[in-house]
Amino acid sequence: MKKEILYFNGLYGDLNANNDVDYIFSELIKTRSETFDWVVRPHIHSRLYQIFCVEYGNVTFQGNNLEKKMSGPFVILIPPMAIHGLLYSKDIRGRILTLSDSYVEAAIGKESPILSNLNTPEFIENFEDKHIFNEILDLILHIDREIFSGKVEQQRMIRALLCQLFIKSYRLFNTNRVIKKQDSMYLQHFNNFQKIIKSPGKIKTITELAENLQISPIHLNRICKAITNKPALQIVHEHAIQEAEKYLKHTSLTIAEIAYSLNFEYPNYFSKLFKKYRKLTPLQYRKGIKK
Prior knowledge:
This protein is an alpha+beta fold. The protein has two domains: about 5-175, Sandwich (Jelly Rolls); about 185-290, Homeodomain-like (Arc Repressor Mutant, subunit A). It is built from twelve helices and ten strands. The chain has helices at about 30-35, 100-110, 115, 130-145, 155-175, 185-200, 205-215, 215-230, 230-250, 255-260, 265-280, 280-290; strands spanning about 5-10, 25-30, 40-45, 50-55, 60-65, 65-70, 75-80, 85-90, 95-100, 120-125. The chain has a five-stranded mixed beta sheet with strand order 1-3-8-5-6, with no helix packed on it. It has a five-stranded antiparallel beta sheet with strand order 2-9-4-7-10. β5 and β6 form a beta hairpin. The radius of gyration is 20 Å and the shape is globular. The termini are far apart.
């Protein structure tokens, strides 16, 4: 993995992001890209999906062993851990929708074929019928309005709109694929590593995780540090904490019950680990949400 590829937990350029499990953000492409002089260097988001909907202007997409030039209208869907850089023309017009992986999974379902097939950037272009592009853009605009509406059943509405957006997009890229490419071995190993730690069951040691990937623990740490600048154990811990946040936010389970649900043997160790990463005990975190 080349060292010049950047890694962000949040949006491009945000070095201190610690996004919520229900993170969703909508903005004009111009808002952020103009700040960086229309050049977004190749980078990776660990747990974010992004949808770029471009009405007008030119974009050069830079991915893994890929450079692709496009002119609007087009749509790009980028899953977590996919390398992407973008060079924009100054007349660019469009929007970016950014969502946490847990938010997308809640809206669509973890087992959906949409997510299992969306593991590399997908490009939807050459719209012969302009109204098809407009349908996608209208859904994104509707989601944008809903995010800031504060209306009754806001989250349920957003998830319903997201479900439509991903299904419409999937139908298009699944039947008219433009690109098919092989990720590097580092990314393949890292993606498989993430799948294992997200799967239910006892929390595995780094040695056990490496054995499942048929690589050494040293090589697993080398891969994780190359992609995320974090050791493998920290990534495992952060995933567990993010899962704990879902339980604390959306259930009434006790702290001990949450710890056991996440396969921690000792609730005290779970609480200590949570405080290390969130600077709050699980109980303090839950009380803060209620307030």
